[in-house]
Amino acid sequence: MIGTGVYRTEDEFLEEFVAPEDREGVKQRAAQLIAENHGARLAELREQAHLDQEEAARRMGVSTARVAEIESGRDASLNVIKAFLLAIGYEDVELTAVRNGNRFRIA
């Protein structure tokens, strides 16, 4: 709803506040910030498990640089996030979609 301050979609919001030529860049930057936030949260969870990056890497069977990359948000695939969480001590990791009360386990 343009001009009301209530937006049903991201595009409605961008249409009101961002020049057309800048919209794609704004979307890309927003996605980058979200990924960085997710990576930072993974780092927090690792620290709460009292593990350093070296130990997380050893448990995952990857390099410390790879763990740093994951924690920076540069790889947010579900498989990588699941492997990371299992390596830092989570017993199970699942992604469930819910629609109209129906649950579907995805991963």
Descriptive report:
This protein has helices spanning about 10-15, 25-50, 55-60, 65-70, 80-85, and strands at about 95-100, 100-105. The longest helix is centred in the N-terminal third of the chain and has 26 residues, at about 25-50. The chain has about 110 residues and is mainly alpha-helical. A two-stranded antiparallel ribbon has the order 1-2. About 55% of the residues lie in helices and about 5% in strands. The chain has a single domain (about 10-105), classed as lambda repressor-like DNA-binding domains (434 Repressor (Amino-terminal Domain)), CATH 1.10.260.40.
- Biggest β-sheet, characterized? 2 strands, antiparallel
Please list the strands of the largest sheet in the order they lie side by side: 1-2
Order of helices and strands: HHHHHEE
Say how many strands there are. Answer: 2
Global morphology: extended
According to CATH, the fold-level topology is 434 Repressor (Amino-terminal Domain)
Number of domains: 1
Give the low-pLDDT segments.
none
Helix content: 55-70%
Q: Which features characterize this protein?
A:
single chain, 107 residues, 434 Repressor (Amino-terminal Domain), 5 helices, 2 strands
